[in-house]
Amino acid sequence: MTGRRRLGSIGLVAIVALSFATIATAKLPGDEGAMMRMLACEGEGVRMEVYVPLAVAGHGMRAGQTVAGYYALDLTDANKGKPLEPVRVTMSADKKTVIVDQYTRGLPPTHVPVGGGTVDFDQRFAKSAKCGPFQSQDPNFGN
How confident is the model at residue 76, as a pLDDT? Predict the structure, then answer.
């Protein structure tokens, strides 16, 4: 019986040590994983947000630059939550428009004026959304 106990204790110690090693090697996302909200919009009972990598947000987007970002459609008021979906965010060549391409859902790209304006993201939920300026945290910025 002593041999079985000793073997069981060694197994338990090995499991505990392995789980601590796994926790110690788990990495949090670095700057490449950090995102910043760059566009905030509001529609009737819905909010939309566009996030881009923090490294891009800190320097601003160049003309013609496309980055991978996330689009959040906040349907909390409708008790549907706030899913994130990957999008492509492009700064137009003249730097007057930000193009949000919701490629995973096959929707046409949404063209948002850099200074803000009213746009349609999604014909079901996000029609006539009032967007603040790109790189602004407040959809009512300047209004």
Answer: 76
